[in-house]
């Protein structure tokens, strides 16, 4: 018969309370047990002394007889200084799974293709001389546009007097939109 020291759940729904029991390892979780050696109330604060209660003498006796504690009970016994728990290390815990690795490789491949396309696009305009002539053609239109904007700005105070309910910026915006269109016609 294998003897285990483990938790047996009690309490109400969403209000757990556990008994620390010594039982046959084949019996059910909340079933028949040999001896109750403590209790655990997870609803209490972690620094409370009432959270975990263990009869140290009985726990030592059952451990000397060969009882195997569950992981949680082993933590309690370690905190009480009854039995030392060895530190565990799982280096593969943080390693992503197979599908996550595949997605990361696909994403890296797409980013590499996008970077190559961007590099190719950046190299292509430098080779074309026609792209250099286009900014020169736009420069005269830009010089004429400020002159066209100044004239409607002078008319703006008159518009404010006639349309007191409307904002003064509305006529000016309409004039600005018309000015580039006139400049574009002159440039052609």
Write structural notes for this entry.
With 188 residues, the chain is an alpha+beta fold. The protein folds into three domains: 3-80, 2-Layer Sandwich (S16 Ribosomal Protein, Chain: A), CATH 3.30.1320; 95-127; 134-187, no CATH class. Helix content is 54%, strand content 16%. It contains five helices and five strands. It has helices at residues 56-65, 71-80, 98-127, 130-162, 169-187; strands at residues 3-12, 15-24, 35-40, 52-54, 68-69. A five-stranded mixed beta sheet has the order 4-3-2-1-5. Helix 4 packs antiparallel against helix 5 (169-187). The radius of gyration is 41 Å and the shape is elongated. The chain starts with a strand and ends with a helix. The model has no long low-confidence stretch (mean pLDDT 78).
